[in-house]
Amino acid sequence: MPLVMLVLETLRALADPTRLRIMRLLASMELAVGELAQVLGQSQPRVSRHIKILCDAGLAERRREGGWVFLRAAVSETGAPDALGTALARVLVSAETDDAAFGAQCAEDRQHLGVIRSAREASAADYFARHAAEWDELRSLHIADGPVEAALGEMLSGQIGRLLDVGTGTGRIAELFAARAQHVTALDKSPEMLRLARTRLQHLPAGHVSLVQGDFAQLPFPDAGIDGGFDTVLFHQVLHYALAPQAVLAEAARVTAPGGRVVIVDFAPHEREELRTAHAHARLGFSDAQVAALLTAAGFDPAGDRALPGHELIVKIWTGVRREGRASVTEFPRLAAQ
Question: Are residues 150 and 281 located together in one domain of the fold?
Fold first, then answer.
């Protein structure tokens, strides 16, 4: 599209007070359509029409999680200096200062976001209360989270770059490393877990974290290139859910930039067969040899490991570095059922 036409389309999309308010709200945090309607005091169908106009103009992005649709801003004041969207985002920031009425309206809107945050926290607290017993039972079998997170931080020394947290769950690991990452993508298959993660991560700057619904066996991201892909891909207590871990790591290799790292936190082999039914574990841990074979076949060079004995289950951390090429899935070694 010619630049002049793009400018005209963008300006038409912003030629409404409600849409200006939506853009300022999305600059603060990602919001569901219903949450936006609540803050704006308008019907959901009416807000949806405004959203469609903004999305069609490339100013906002929609993403479905189960029965919910979430919105995020597609432009940011911290983008490329010559980008049209960046310029528009900066104009909207200035408009709050220059126009007292608009600034007051935006300030009032942001105050309502506190209600949204509180509602999310209440929902998360209810979820944790309902599942606390089963989680406490599993935690009692292995070392506490603190030492594992400390060891993980030591092995992930330096800058993390673009981080993909696969199976983010409650978002704890994404939160832990957000300050050291250029950007965090928190992925989970479960919409309910993503809502928990969103609650935990909602204090972070808008645009620094992306929450994505997806399957670790079919990651919804393009192939990594020289300048694209993730610099760090992290599986924290996730790989034991994989029926075909070889395919999961092949997907990780596909989206990891050359020279990027993969980190796996999981259990060493064990015999707690009840975890298959009680917690849906498909694998009863992994040996060092198994992980090394999986990493090598996927296109990673094994780069070190650490054992963290605790109670009955031993937590292991394995790392690998992405090579230039990678093997096809058919070349992966088969893992014996455990």
Answer: yes
Yes or no: say if 106 and 112 are a contact pair by the CB < 8 Å rule: no
242 touches 286 (CB < 8 A): no
Residue closest to 273 by CA, chosen among 285, 258, 256:
285
Place of tokens 């292995």: 142
Asked whether the whole model's pTM tops 0.85, one would answer no
Residue 126 resides in a domain: no
Instruction: Categorize the per-residue pLDDT at 331 as very low, low, confident or very high, splitting at 50, 70 and 90.
Output: very low
- For residue 245, CA distances in Å to 215, 286, 294 come to 13, 10, 8
Report the distance separating Cα 90 and Cα 79, nearest Å: 10
First vs last C-alpha separation in the chain: 56
Q: Per the structure block, which two tokens stand in for 122?
A: 């209440």
Residue-wise burial string across 77-101, b where 16 or more C-beta atoms lie within 10 A, e elsewhere: bebeeeeebbbbbbebeeebeeeee
- CATH number, domain containing residue 55: 1.10.10.10
Asked if 189 and 276 sit in the same domain, the reply is yes
pLDDT tens digits, 233-250: 999 999 999 988 999 999
Residue 295, burial from CB neighbour count under 10 angstroms (0-12, 13-18, 19+): buried
